[in-house]
Amino acid sequence: MVELCDALFGFIRAFGLHRTDETPCGVPMSVSEAQAMTLLLEGPATPSQLADRLALARSTVSRLLERLDTEGWIRRRPDPTDGRSSQVVLTATGRRTADRVLAARHARLSGLMANIDEPDRADIVRALRLLAEAAHVS
After folding, report:
1. For 12-39, how does the pLDDT look when each residue is reduced to its tens digit (9 = 90+)?
2. How many CB atoms lie within 10 A of CB 120?
3. Domain of residue 124, residue span
4. Measured distance CA(74)–CA(86) in Å, rounded
5. pTM for the full model?
6. What secondary structure does DSSP assign to 36-101, as a single string?
7. What CATH number does residue 93 fall under?
């Protein structure tokens, strides 16, 4: 168990996931903000849907959305299927910002994978998927 902790937290520190002021790819926003923005590239979502997909409390997502709204990256509109709810959509500025985050993420991960021997890359992806699945079960 000690080896797993050392490996996991060593990766978190080396990759920069512990920083709250920028993403591991160097974009000046939190990882949660970046995740929300890139999820919204897929289309509108309700705050509850974002909370579920981000695995965050609804109150945390509410504060996160306030920050994104203050930056001018999102706007809220009535949910066409549920008049009691709202949908969150990216503004044009938000879309450009989210595209920049996604491009930076892909560049960082491509650089990271380039440092790993080709035969080991699939093992890395498989191990990460297994860890994510196990985290959802516990």
Report:
1. 998 888 888 889 888 999 999 999 999 9
2. 10
3. 2-137
4. 12
5. 0.86
6. HHHHHTT--B-HHHHHHHHT--HHHHHHHHHHHHHTTSEEEEEETTEEEEEEEEE-HHHHHHHHHH
7. 1.10.10.10
